[in-house]
């Protein structure tokens, strides 16, 4: 009986929700891969879990070959552009099917005051014209882009502390991990007298409460749009992944019969 080996590039709540669904399929072995940056990742105790980078495209190609991976599922964060790009090239090199799950972006609604900034540097340049006190919700990796904004005060929310050497703007670091609640987000914005939010357009429900809270309070959001995806198959509905895997397994199975 042929076993199909699936590599899931994960680290998101969506990947945690998907893994039990995939594990219920017959004849599959799952390997979930995490970047390894979060101390307590949200990952079910099913199948194999590996942590840490592969070593660029070449490392991923070697891994896919060594582990005899049949299918690659990219369920990473919409802003994890590097691993998604690497996965696209590596899957093509090895000749295995790859599917990207990209959850829908948040859409602007009546009452929203969004200002688009093409990236973190552009967002930092806009801040002094917009507010003195800012809620920075972009995580820790791009914190240094805001280090030059020295005349504003920042509430910086992230899951883990940045390294002490990372340049950062003045303000306070708040360690917390979603999902976030609308009432608490509203209270936080009021308590810290926040005048604007900086956010990536991550989409999904876990971090959406701040978007709704800003709408209710009439606060502007400097919104950073997602990076472009490489060519290839993309779904935006998590429920579409299992049928995709089943159809790939059917065609791989008949190809190898
Ligand atoms: N809120 C969230 O849940 C969440 C989760 C993840 C990312 N993000 C956001 O996305 C942005 C980029 O994040 P990122 O650094 O994780 O992605 P990235 O910039 O696309 O990846 C950088 C490198 O990390 C390694 N990597 C990333 N994901 C991996 C995985 N699933 N398995 C193994 N290695 C992996 C790869 O290293 P090698 O080249 O060595 O293979 C990759 O080249 C950040 O802004 C971050 O805030 C948010």
Q: Which helices and strands, and how do they pair?
A:
Blueprint: E1 4-9, H1 13-23, E2 28-34, E3 48-51, H2 56-66, E4 71-74, H3 81-94, E5 98-101, E6 113-116, H4 120-130, E7 133-137, E8 153-158, E9 171-175, H5 182-191, E10 196-200, H6 209-217, E11 220-224, E12 233-235, H7 241-256
Parallel strand pairs: 1-2, 1-4, 2-3, 4-5, 5-12, 6-11, 7-8, 7-10, 8-9, 10-11
The protein binds NADP nicotinamide-adenine-dinucleotide phosphate.
Secondary-structure element sequence? EHEEHEHEEHEEEHEHEEH
Shape: elongated
What do the pLDDT scores average to? 96
Structural class: alpha/beta
Distance between the termini: 11 Å
Can you list the ligands bound to this structure? NADP nicotinamide-adenine-dinucleotide phosphate
How much helical structure, as a percent, in the residues?
25-40%
Secondary structure tally, helices? 7
> Could you tell me the number of beta strands?
12
Q: What is Rg?
A: 20 Å
Number of domains: 2
Q: Largest sheet, if any? A: 6 strands, parallel
The name of the CATH topology of the largest domain is: Rossmann fold
CATH homologous superfamily identity of the largest domain: NAD(P)-binding Rossmann-like Domain
Strand content: 15-25%
The CATH architecture designation of the largest domain is 3-Layer(aba) Sandwich
CATH class descriptor of the largest domain: Alpha Beta
Q: Please give the order of strands in the largest beta sheet.
A: 3-2-1-4-5-12
């Amino acid at each position: 009986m042929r076993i199909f080996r699936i590599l899931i590039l994960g680290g998101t709540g969506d990947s945690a929700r998907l893994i039990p669904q995939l594990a219920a399929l017959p004849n599959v072995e799952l390997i979930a891969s995490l970047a390894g940056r979060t101390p307590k990742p949200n990952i079910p105790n099913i199948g194999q879990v590996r942590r840490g980078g592969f070593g660029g495209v070449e490392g991923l190609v070697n891994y896919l070959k060594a582990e005899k991976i049949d299918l690659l599922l990219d369920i990473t964060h919409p802003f994890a552009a590097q691993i998604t790009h690497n996965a696209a090239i590596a899957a093509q090199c090895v000749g295995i099917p790859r599917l990207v799950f990209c959850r829908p972006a948040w859409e602007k609604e009546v009452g929203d005051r969004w200002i688009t900034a093409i990236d973190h540097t552009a967002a930092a340049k806009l801040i002094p014209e917009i507010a003195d006190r800012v809620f920075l919700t972009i995580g820790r990796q791009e914190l240094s882009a805001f280090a030059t904004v020295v005349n504003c005060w920042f509430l910086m929310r992230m899951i883990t502390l940045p390294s002490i050497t990372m340049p950062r703007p003045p303000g306070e670091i708040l360690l917390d991990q979603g999902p976030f609640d609308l009432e608490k987000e509203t209270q936080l914005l009021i308590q810290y007298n926040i005048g604007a939010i900086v956010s990536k357009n991550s989409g999904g429900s876990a971090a959406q409460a701040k978007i709704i809270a800003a709408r209710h309070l009439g606060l502007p959001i400097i919104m950073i749009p997602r990076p472009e995806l490489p060519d290839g198959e993309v779904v935006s509905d998590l429920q579409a992944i299992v049928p995709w895997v089943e159809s790939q397994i059917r065609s791989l199975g008949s190809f190898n019969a």
